[in-house]
Structure formats: C-alpha cells, structure tokens
Amino acid sequence: MRGFKIFTGSAHPDFGKELAKHLDGVISKATVNRFSDGEINVQISESVRGKDVFIIQPTCVPANDSLMELLIMTDAFKRSSASSINAVIPYFGYARQDRKAAPRVPITAKLVANLMQSAGIDRVITMDLHAGQIQGFFDVPVDNLYGSIVFRDYIRSKNLKSPIIASPDIGGVSRARYFADQLGMDLVIVDKKREKANVSEVMNIIGDVEDKDIILVDDMIDTAGTMCKAAEVLKAKGAKSVMALGTHPVLSGPAIDRIQNSVLNEVVVSNSIPLRQKCSKITVLSVAPLFAEVIRRIYHNESVNSLFI
C-alpha cells in the first residue's frame, strides 16, 4: 500500500479521513489556501514522484470552488511527477446538465469532463451519476459505483413486512428497477405531469401501494419537493409507510424543513456530501468503506465490478 497516497481537498475532509482509515493509511499533507481576492492556492507538502495519487473531493457546494480546487490540485500533482492522478468524486457536480434539453444551453457535464482531463486526471471514481452516459464524456476510465450496495443492506435490516420499491418519476425508473431486482421486490412508479402552465403537478401512481411499505429511490435529493409530494400521494393511496433513499443529500433551499414537516417516515442518504444541517428524519450511511475497497482493488488491478454482482 506504500505505492499510493491519499489527499483530500476542503470539500469533505471528514470523508477522506474515514476512507484513509479503512486503508490503514493517513491523509498525506497538502495545504489549500486562498489569496485575498479568493484565488485558490495549493501547496503539496511531501513528495509524490512516482506515486499513484488519489484526490478525495466531491464537487459539492460551493461547486465552483470545489471543482477549481480539484483541478488546481491535479495540476500540482502532474507537475510533481505523480505516476497517476485518480479523482475520487463521491458526488459529481453539474451532472444534471448532461444534454441539450432546450435550444442554446450548454452541456456542462461534458465541459467539466474536458476540464478534468485537460488538467491531467487519469481516472475518475464516482457514485450514482445523475446520467450514466456521462461516463462516455471521458476518454479516461470512469468507475461509477452504485450506492445501492450500502442501502440494500440497510433495507434488509429493517425487516419491513410489505416492502415495495418506487421511482419518484419516470426518469428514475431504470435506477429504481435495478434496486428492486437487487432486493427481489416489485416496482411502482409515480407519474407526474403538469396539465398547464402555473398549475401544480398532478401525480398518478402506476401500481398497487395499498398497505405497502414504500421505498422511494432517487440518486439525489435537492429541494425535496418531488419526494415529499410523492410521499403524500402514496400515503393518500393507502401506503402504510414511505421511506426515501437518496444517495446525494444536496438538500438545498427549503429541503430540510420540507422533509421534517412531510409524511415521510425516514430519509436515508449517504455521506457523499457533508450534511450541512441535522434533521431527525434523516439517516446517514457511510460509503467511505466502499470507496476504500474500490481504491484497494484498483491499486492491485482487481475487479471492481464483482463488488456489485
């Protein structure tokens, strides 16, 4: 294990420390400072010549600073003769801008991929990309891990009597179906549509939820509006309980208040992003052990995919 070094940016240092512990290692020394005008300055405090470097840095809030910090650290390692530079990005920001959904809009996920490659990143390790095709925006290896491996064990430990998986919208069906197959459960879908402008969305349930323990599955929870409203509709249709799973707890704006005041029984998230505010309904599961095992396998040229079979 002496052939690689782990560094962490300022976006989520606690995650990096936990990950390093699972590899029986320590976080290598690097200093991230800012000039008076906000420019980021990085100083690597130990030699990385000939080493495989892993940078732990989710590109979460503040997204632009987190991304620039990752790029600047990458440049520093490249100029310090690191053997390889591996970006461990538990949460990949800008992933929602993955296509031209309207005229004259950018494909920012592709722009971010170009920036990372130009900076010198040799491999990306991330989790539950909002759109799987983002892997194809890179010309370097991308390991897109599944948070379901952690959530799966947690759901089994709950011993729910009548569990069923639900997708909060049509776009998340493939993700929810994969999770349902993993647990051997049935799937229902929340179909939402807006009848006309300035009228709230109408939600219909595809499938039977009467007396069921519903498990809503999504890749991220941002403002929590869709998740909370879906829970209301499911409860109105006779669901016994509603739990939500979201890998990335973005939780912006009124999200925490919405969750706290919703009919949701529990919201389970990972620690891919630091939780900025506590909430009695939110349970946080650590994915640091999973990322640590993936790093170990990559370093030893072992299969990563076999973790998810």
The largest beta-sheet arranges its strands as 10-9-8-11-12-13-14
H/E order of the elements?
A: EHEEEHEHEEHEHEEEHEHEEH
> What's the total number of strands?
14
Structural class: alpha/beta
Largest sheet: 7 strands, mixed
Distance between the termini: 26 Å
Percent of residues in helical segments? Answer: 25-40%
Taking pLDDT < 50 over at least 5 consecutive residues as the criterion, the unreliable ranges are: none
Short description:
The chain is built from eight helices and 14 strands. With 309 residues, it is an alpha/beta fold.
Describe what this molecule looks like in 3D.
The longest helix has 17 residues, at 63-79. This protein is globular. It has eight helices and 14 strands. A seven-stranded mixed sheet has the order 10-9-8-11-12-13-14, sandwiched between helices. Strands 1-4-5-6-7 form a five-stranded parallel sheet, with helices on both faces. By secondary structure, the chain is of the alpha/beta class. The protein has helices spanning 13-22, 63-79, 108-119, 148-158, 173-183, 225-236, 255-260, 288-299; strands spanning 4-8, 30-34, 40-44, 52-56, 84-89, 123-127, 142-145, 163-167, 187-193, 202-206, 213-221, 241-249, 266-270, 282-285. α1 (13-22) crosses α8 and α2 (63-79) packs parallel to α3.
